[in-house]
Amino acid sequence: MINLLWFSNSPLRFLFWPLLWPLSLIFGSISRGRRQSFVAGKRESYRAPVPIVIVGNITAGGNGKTPVVVWLVELLQKQGLKVGVVSRGYGAKAPNYPLLVGNNTPTEALW
Questions:
Q1: Which of 5, 50, 90, 105 could hold 101 in an S-S bridge, CB 3.0 to 4.6 Å?
Q2: Where are the transmembrane segments (predicted)?
Q3: Burial readout 58-87 (b: 16 or more C-beta within 10 A, e: otherwise)
Q4: What is the rounded CA–CA span in Å between residue 106 and residue 99?
Q5: Which comes out higher in pLDDT, residue 111 or 69?
Q6: Phi, psi of 54 (to 5 degrees)
Q7: At 52, is the secondary structure helix, strand, or coil?
């Protein structure tokens, strides 16, 4: 849907704009309010005990996130760091969540 609205010249693009504009105003207002509550000290941020790197963007697939993660893991491991990868598992059908993946985890559980 986002790709259709953003990148194409489809007539649907012009149909959805007026519908999505009010939602963007609401989202912006909520986001500003949340940020202000953090700045004012009314809300507290979570600080993880380990460094965290997030690889992602608004587009679901085809942007090369997986190769970047593989490269980053290999780079960090060469530096002697222990690395863990957490994936939301888009489309996965794991028997339970979170799924701890090991050497004996069947590939089917990951897709």
A1: 105
A2: 12-30
A3: eeeeeeeeeeebeeeeeeeeeeeeeeeeee
A4: 11
A5: 69
A6: -110, 125
A7: coil
Do 59 and 3 form a contact (C-beta atoms < 8 A)? yes
Instruction: Give whichever of 25-29, 55-59, 65-69, 88-92 has the largest mean pLDDT.
Output: 25-29
Distance between CA atoms of residues 50 and 19, nearest Å: 41
Q: Report how far apart, in Å, the C-alpha atoms of 21 and of each of 4, 9, 15, 24, 68 are.
A: 16, 18, 11, 5, 33
Q: Under DSSP, is residue 106 helix (H, G, I), strand (E, B) or coil?
A: coil
SS3 content of the chain, % helix, strand, coil (to 5): 50, 0, 50
**Torsion over CA: 68, 69, 72, 73 (sign):** negative
Element (H, E) at 43: none
Amino acid at 22: P
For the chain, the straight-line distance linking the first and the last C-alpha, in angstroms and rounded, comes to: 23
pLDDT tens digits, residue range 2-12? 666 677 777 77
pLDDT value, residue 13: 73
Residue that has been written with the tokens 């970047």 in this structure: 68
